Structures are given as structure tokens and as C-alpha cells.
Amino acid sequence: MWGICSRTLVGMAKTCGIARPKHLVKPVSATRVAGRYLTHQRGLPCLPVPPLQQTCERYIAALEPIVETDELTHTKKLVEEFQKAGGVGERLQKGLEKRAGNTENWLSEWWVKVAYLEYRMPVVVHSSPGLVLPPMNFSDKPGQIRFAAKLIAGVLDFKTMIDNETLPVEYMGQKPLCMNQYYEVLSSCRIPGLKMDSVVNHAKSSHPPNHIIVVHNGQFFQLDVYNSDGTALTAEQLCVQLNKICDASPEMNAEPIGILTTEHRDRWGRAYQTLIKDKTNKDSVSAIQRGIFTLCLDGAMPHVSSELYRSCAAAQMLHGGGSQWNSGNRWFDKTLQFIVGADGTCGANYEHAPAEGPPIVALIDHVVEYTRKPETAPASMGALPMPHKLHFNITPEIKKDIEEAKHSINKLAQEVEIRVHVFSHFGKNVPKAYKMSPDAFIQMALQLAFYRMYKHSCATYESASLRMYRLGRTDTIRSASSASAAFVKAFDDPSRQNKEKADLMENAVKAHRAYTNMAVSGQAIDRHLLGLKMQALEENLSVPAVFKDAAYAKALHYRLSTSQVPSKTDCVMCFGPVVPNGYGVCYNPMNDHINFAVSSFTACEETSAGRLAQAVEGALVDMRALLEQTPKAKL
Ligand code: COA
Fold it and tell me: What are the Choline/carnitine acyltransferase domain coordinates in residue numbering (predicted)?
């Protein structure tokens, strides 16, 4: 376990939620503490395998609000058959328990494979989240470069804590969390494959990289960020280097090679093979993959009204706006890309396979705080070598792949509607005053908003962290419950009394919080069901009928795919919907306001990110009004 000193220094333990320091993350030791990470990791519990019967019962309960009665009757029979004594469910459960005994985490490797590496849709929009920061205080090239230089210095400052194993441990309540994801996000990259991708992490190699990659006008540069004595370049030195890069790439590259990474993974996998046949290309790609992270110095996007500014910024972070804007100024396979626009628009995009949002946001919070530190007077600087431009030999075949990728990303960028909505009436403060979990309150507002638009409830996904367990990733909080369905149905019914509605709301919020507690302690149903299915495949058994059932497909058709990603900075993460007629909803509840990023696909006539955002606003306002009109609700 981590030493007592790390806990006391961090001093972050609290009743629930992932706890973070309120200011710049400070290392727990001034020097390297070798072995501290592993000692901590080994002290974490292993992810449990929930009891089979418990999952089966909870699965049926989760289906109740989203399937028809006759479907449910049919599924109940399948589930009974599946879980009966001596049946296939029992066999798979035993297999899973055995796997849990032989691995560090019975789920994580399967999960990364199924959710990310075997998923063949483009990582852009479909998998990689974007993150929008508030606009920074610059609007010209020198300002852009100065800010970018500070940002690089801030990331390197954070990296020192990772390298030295002095990063403060995070807690959920009193429980320490797995810190592995922090060790996976720098110097790593996804590699496209023909059927399945992989991820490499060069931080763990015997020669970890000393460089980052800078992309400007679709051209890639390798920028060494450490001096020969191992000290990091200062912000002033980085400024000089970034200026050299910008001077060396004044025009937009007509063949922006990075656009290939926006493609469908099978196509990119094939194009990748063609690309790296050439030795120069292979070396350039390798430099990008090995880089600590990528910095994208973006050109300005079209000017929009202040009302639309954050939504356009979200599009820039999510997909770059298309080939005519900044989609080619990226390497979307890179785990971490910071984006600094010419007009003060800043943010990031990250490839999801190695990590969830919270560690990325913690890093970004630190970096933003770091950039706010007053500038130090420039010290005298020795001459630094010119950053190395990465060259690519573009054959006609590669040119064709680039043209096809341009076409695909332009279509995809057109197909996504993304709306950033700042809900300014209240934040976490109001639900807290009513002794309700703010997250559960927001989720119930989403349920109400959806019901008001479609007159039924839908399968809803909210990510729950499994980081209380070693190498834990996520499970699903199913926000649509019988309690939420009863609440949303009653809410606009004039025949129901306010007191009854408020009670139903309280029930629904409590049910959501109970599901959350169950999920973060490894007792939710979704990853367990996935594990049972994977176990069947592992044992070469035919997939049990319960997984071929229409109700199972319905349960996984998440028209609402949601996630809370809280931060200190007034930012918001964004991601695309996971089904064609669905919504992606990410939110950051601050004390007195809530930042929402809502996405939908324009090809679907039924959905509209703007309309859902408005409906959520209405639902939140109406829910508070109900509480105010029902004084007893305020405990
Ligand atoms: N009365 C008063 N206050 C309450 C309360 C109640 N009944 N319930 C909770 N609160 C307080 C909490 O103490 C906390 O206080 P803080 O603002 O001082 O931190 C705050 O309200 C937030 O709690 P809550 O809204 O319940 O959410 P949470 O912080 O427990 O988070 C999850 C819930 C599900 C988001 C979290 O457990 C989780 O798993 N996060 C990770 C999700 C993830 O990985 N997303 C990324 C995917 S890419």
C-alpha cells in the first residue's frame, strides 16, 4: 500500500466521488520514490465476480422500464434456463471465477479488446472524447505559441510526478484508487491493425522518448523537450522552438498524412500497411507513436457568434471540423493530443483505449493551473537545435488513401451535431441542499427530458469507475430504472399531487445512487454479463440464448450514452452518440452551474442535440421548482 505519508499529504479522502486536490497537484515527495506505484497497486483489491443469481435478478429488473411485457416474460424464461442448477450459466460463472483467481483483473483485458481494439468504427467521434477548455486570453500567433509553450511545460511538470512515482493517490470515499491509467496516457499510441488494433506504451521501454510531436499546418515535427542533462526545456526555450516550427511550416500541407487516422479502422489498417512500406514513412510514423504527446497548433476556425462558440470549439476538439479545417492537423491514434487554436480556443482529444476521462482531466486541470503561473523573466539561452521535421513520401496509392480519408471525415463532421450548453440556474449546490446526489439528480433530469421528447424511457448508459479495484476501468450505471420510469411518467401528469411527484423523484434519485454504489463496488450487471458471454467464447461453447435475445440487444442499444467528468477547470468533455438514433451526453457539474456537451447524428430525424439540451434545461428547472413547491422535500 501507499505509505501513510502519501495519504496525509494528499488529504483528499471524503464520503464519495473521486477526490482531487483543489490546486496544482503537488508531488508527495521531492525525489523519486522507486517502487511506490507497484506497492500501491498490489495493495488494491481484485475486481470481484458478482453472484450469478444476483446479476440475473438485476438484469430482469433493468429490463422492466425498457422492454414490452411479453418480451420480458420471454426473457425471464431464458434467464431461468440460463441460471438453473447445473446449467450453462453456472459453468460459465465457475470459469469466470477461475479466471479471476488467475489474473490481476478478470475483466480489463477483455474490455479493452471488445470496447476499443476490436471496434472498427473511426476513433474520431465514435470513441475518442474531446475536451473544451474555456477560451484562453490570446488571439494571435505569438499568444498561441506562448500559451502552447507553457502548456508543454505544464504537462512535463505533471510527467515528473509520473516518472518519479510521486503522484498523489486518489480516493473514492475512504478507498484508494487504481492509479494505473496515469501511467498509460503519456508516450503511448494506438496502432491500427487489419482486424484488431493494439496499443504501445513507450514510457515503459528501456529508452523512453524525450520528444513530443508538434503538428502545424498538417506537418509533423519532432521536438526534443529535454536538455542533455535531463532537465526539461523551459517555457521560454519551448517558445523559441515552436516559433521555428511555425516558420518552417507556413502553408497548409495539401497531403495531411494525419487525416488517415480519422478513417474506419479496417481501411486505416490497410492504408497503414501501405504507408509504412517506405522506410522514411515508417520512421516518421514511429516518431509520432513514440512521442510523449502531440501538440496540435490549429489554424483559426470560422468565426461564430458567442452563443455558438463553445459548440464549435467542441467540434474542433472532437473531429477538427473536416479536412478544410483542422482534421488533418491531428494524429487521432495518439493517446493524448493537446489542441491550441490560433484564436484562443484550446482543449484536447484523447484515444480512449488506455484510460477514462478523469485521469486525463486531472492532468489537464494541473496544466491549466500551471499555465496561470506568472511568467518568469527569460534566462539567457544557449542555441537549441532545429526541431526535426518528419517527412513522408506520398505515393499515388497513399495519395488516394488520403483523398478517401478526407471525404470520409468531411462526411462524418457534417453528420454530427454537437451542442455545448451551460446550464446556469444552479449546479451541485441545489441537489446537495435537498440532500440528494447531484449526479443522480442530473441523470433523472436526463430521464425526464428524454421522456418528454419521446414518451418512453430508453436504455441509458452512465459510466461508473471501477478504479477501486486493481486495473479497474468502468461498468455501467443503468439510469433507466422502474423508479425513474414511475417518476418521469408522473411528472407532467396533472392528476398527480406535487407531494407524490416529489416522493417519486426522491425515490428515483435514491435508486440511481444505490445503483451507482453497487456499480463502483463491482456489483453491476453489464460487465458480468459480458464476462459470461466472453467465457462461453473462450470455452468454445455456443453463445447462450440469453445473449441472442432481442431484449439483450435492446438493453445494449443506448439511446442515451452519458458520463460525468468533473473538473476544477470550467471545461467540458464531449463524445459522439453510440447508436445512430442516440445521444452522447457528457457533463461537468460545477458548484453553481453545469456544463453539458450533447451530441447527436444529423442523419437521424428523431434526434437533435440542441433539442435535448433545451429539454434537459427545462427538466432541471422544473425539478427544482417542484422541490421548492414541496417544502417537506427539503430535509
Ligand atoms: N446529500 C448531499 N450531498 C451529496 C449527496 C447527498 N445525498 N450525495 C452526494 N453528495 C455530494 C458528494 O459528497 C459530492 O460532494 P463534492 O462536490 O464535495 O465532491 C458531490 O455531491 C457529488 O456526488 P455525486 O453527485 O453523488 O457524484 P459522485 O461524485 O459520487 O460521482 C460517479 C458519481 C458515478 C460519476 C462516480 O462514482 C464515477 O464513477 N465517476 C467516474 C466516471 C467515469 O469514469 N467517467 C468517464 C468516462 S470516459
Answer: 47-617
